[in-house]
Amino acid sequence: MPNLDIVDHQILKLLQADAKLNVNDIAQRLNLTKTPIYERIKRLERTGVIDKYVALVDRKKFTPSIIVFLSGSLNVSKFEQTQEFYDAVMVIDEVLECYLLGGDKDFLLKVIAKDLDSYHEFYSEKIASIPHIGEIRSSFVLKEVKHTTTIPNMELQ
């Protein structure tokens, strides 16, 4: 991993706020010339610090939807069985995020559905067919208080 200095952190902060900023804009905001900014961005991309650029879509601008968090346990005795769970989850479009947990639950899924009826159908048809799932609990989001994709300045390893 590369050592990041203050300029690298500033570049990352700017790009996380607006990935469409061009090299000239970033250089101007940081009072630097564009060539070193360009080289730094290319190094951050090449080393994987910048993974990809995406457009964040406001789901509220589309059909109304609900967010549901599913937490649960897995009935597995071998690593291969856990991998079957991962593989099944990866191809379900409604699953936005999946986390393996330590503690009293084994996994957490963030799911999007059009409404409660759609969620029930999704749960019955897709979640119930995922291999090795034990107990599951669903929690419905009532209000989104904070949602960000920005990682605050932290030291890289």
Write a brief structural summary.
This protein is α+β, with helices and mostly antiparallel strands. It has helices at 6-17, 23-29, 34-46, 79-90, 116-127, and strands at residues 66-74, 95-100, 107-113, 133-140.
Assign the CATH architecture of the largest domain.
Answer: 2-Layer Sandwich
Distance between the termini: 6 Å
Broad shape: elongated
Structure annotation, total helices: 5
- Number of E-state strands: 4
Mean pLDDT: 91
What structural class do the secondary elements suggest?
alpha+beta
CATH topological fold name of the largest domain: Alpha-Beta Plaits
Q: Detail the poorly predicted runs.
A: none
What string gives the helices and strands in order?
HHHEHEEHE
Fraction in beta strands: 15-25%
Fold and architecture overview:
- Helix 2 packs across helix 3.
- The protein contains five helices and four strands.
- The model has no long low-confidence stretch (mean pLDDT 91).
- By secondary structure, the protein is α+β, with helices and mostly antiparallel strands.
- The protein has a four-stranded antiparallel sheet.
- It has helices at 6-17, 23-29, 34-46, 79-90, 116-127; strands spanning 66-74, 95-100, 107-113, 133-140.
Which features does this protein show?
single chain, 157 residues, alpha+beta, Arc Repressor Mutant, subunit A, Alpha-Beta Plaits, 2 domains, four-stranded antiparallel sheet, 4 strands
